[in-house]
Amino acid sequence: MDSIIEVLKMFIPGSVEFLMLGLAIGLVMLYGGRRARERGRRWLTYLLFGYVLLAIPSVGLNLEGALARGYADPIRIEEVGDVDAILILGGGAVAIRAEGGTIRGLSEASALRVLEGARLYHALGDPWVVASGGPGESWGAKEPESRALSDALQSLGVPAERILLESESRNTMEQAENMSALFQQRGIRRFLLVTSPPHMRRAVAVFEHAGLDPIPAPAPKHSEGASQDIASYVPSSYGLQVSRMALRESFALGYYWVRGWLASP
Prior knowledge:
With 265 residues, this protein is of the alpha/beta class. It is 52% helix and 12% strand. Helix 2 (16-30) runs antiparallel to helix 3 (34-54), helix 4 runs parallel beside helix 10 (237-259) and helix 7 packs across helix 8. The protein starts with a helix and ends in a 6-residue tail after the last helix. The model has no long low-confidence stretch (mean pLDDT 90).
């Protein structure tokens, strides 16, 4: 079941994989009978229109906004109080290896989560910072995202001795399960949960289902300076990426609900 879900993740509308599959289906129809050719032309027209629509940045931003409702604003430090830990959920990373060396990089989502986690760490004193994420989907090497998160945190002044790594999880559900054991070992009770705003609703519900009580601390949705480029009605690859990720999160939310992995509202 899990392997099937991993394959289906690749075919989210807005992805190259979904587009290639759609084009293949349309071309097969075009080589059929008269009725099949008519259906094929309609299918390819809808496919093209759909991708143009998804590539409009404002469409993706509106999809994101619906998912992030209630979690769009950063947490105010004066409202936090004492916390034992800051938990940062990985949102994508890559490791480039050559000639025995390795350079680890973060996706935009992960980088923004790290920046928010580091900001909270320096403002709150000296809590634990937990970097959570196993091997990423796009990694050739079986190297966990948590290491890239840790590297970035240290570059932002978070001491290595205050960083805990959770490097086995493959998804949000496993992150919540693994945190239960880790927090119990370290005596961590009150913690901030840092992730992207569109992902926060699902993450909070999953952690609550696991018996934990996270305090939502949303990271920024996009890098500063990018808003002028993406807040437009001109189709772009970035707009397509935003729409694809929003649709993926929507499908994930539905899948988690069907599996019973979300706490009741």
